From TrEMBL:
One of its GO terms (molecular function) is DNA-binding transcription factor activity. It comes from the Bacteria. This is Putative MarR-family transcriptional regulator. Residues 11-141 form the HTH marR-type domain. Pfam families: MarR. PANTHER family: CONSERVED PROTEIN, HTH-TYPE TRANSCRIPTIONAL REGULATOR RV0880.
Amino acid sequence: MVDDDAGSTARQELMACMREMLKAVRLFKSDLPVEHTTVPVGALAMIDSAGDCHLKDLAARSALDPSTVSRAVATLVKSGLVGRSADPADGRASVLALTPEGRRTLDEVNGWMDDRLADALKDWSPEDIAVFSALMQRFATDLMTRHDQTLEVAR
């Protein structure tokens, strides 16, 4: 365990790195090909990874307000990238799924992102990438766990 002064300094450095990472992600996303800049790609990817899903499940998985997710889904449905169908188990609910055009768009965006990451990481070893990925996942998991624990205490 790191002593308080060293721990505080390390956390401040981490906060600065987080700001830089968020900036880099914003720049990364802003470089998307123009035909995909209005596509809520995160929602599209989550619908794909979840398989057929409900809006409320998508909101929970993304940790976003249902109204925010609803607007993103409405954009995807309007653009023909996602389809809605009645849930056979609950006719009041809609099931969301990628359309063939949504699949093509997601594949294009994922290919573009993979090319950009390959270029940015060309001087990294596979081991460096694996360690970085594992540490980012650990960090995200720890932050989310802490968030969940805080919610539990508040209840």
